[in-house]
Amino acid sequence: MTDHLEKLTLSPAGQTVHRRLFTKADGRPLRLYGYTPHTEAPQAEDDGEVAKGGELRWHPLRREWNVYAPHRQNRTFKPSAADDPLSPTKPGGAATEIPFTDFELAIFENKFTSLHREAPAPQSVAGVESAVAKGHCDVVVYTPEQSGNLHTIGQDKRRLLLSAWNDRYADLFAQGCKFVLPFESRGEAVGVTLHHPHGQIYAFPFVPKVQRDAAAGFQGGYDLAAHMAEGIDTYGVAEAGGIDAVCPPFARFPYETYLVPRRPVKGPWEFTEDEAAGFAELLGDMTRRYDALFGQVTPYMLSLHAAPIGLEADWQFHAKFYPLMRSPGRIKYLASVEQSTGAFTVDVMPESAAQELRAL
After folding, report:
1. In the predicted model, what is the mean pLDDT of residues 274-297?
2. Which CATH superfamily is domain 3-206 in?
């Protein structure tokens, strides 16, 4: 069993973050990140079977790979607070995914993973182009508390989260993954089945179509930072540390917002100290603004878009918030037109969305 502590310098200011790498009883890695060393002895664990990913199949009309992982049908579904698998394990209590009584931030390999470093050979099906789903899927637990969000966890925890993301970027790229996507799905309307504050990381063995298309745009001369700066008075929502929160004029979701560094970088590992602090601040600020605008816990999809391996030229890192609300109490559904053509019908003009969010 692996269990060791390390000191990591993960910010331009040289701030020390401690990482504990622990191997769970079932063989999955667990990483505990914190500003103080984590030295607690582990609680008892369950030693169950762990899935090792699904398979990839090529869609010849959309020209993209999709992941098939039928074992995920059995993943944990809306457990009670008493059975929360992302909470710390209580002494003498039922085992959770984190066999310690406390932690600051935790990242562990998903038990119901879609991609895995030891993924099996795909099924042989006539007329189907398939491939091994080699990769990695992490669960990122923001806090030991069962409730909260990117706003309420505070700036120190958001900075710790950014350090942990950067650490995982480095490790997963070193393993040969081509594209790494930290993301958060928030709210039952998005399909969330665990309410404990958390996100995920998917590391792909290929560059997905959306990122291939974005790379083509950047390499063709598109300057995201300059474009957003030109319309900042109309589309800007907030700014912190050289990062702009903007409702882009080409938004596909009502109230969609990008976080865009004014100084183009390939990924958050290139941030200055001010940029890192500003980016972390805006993660919480946008969550606060959405909840205030809609008067509820707003379901959204958040994703970080750093440069894929091999397509780094001219790439500009950005993060995207896709809220699923079009007005208080009304969800924006992706219906026939959007699903069939990829052409979104947007109910709110981006300039109006920016004005409303800016006012909050």
Report:
1. 97
2. HIT-like (3.30.428.10)
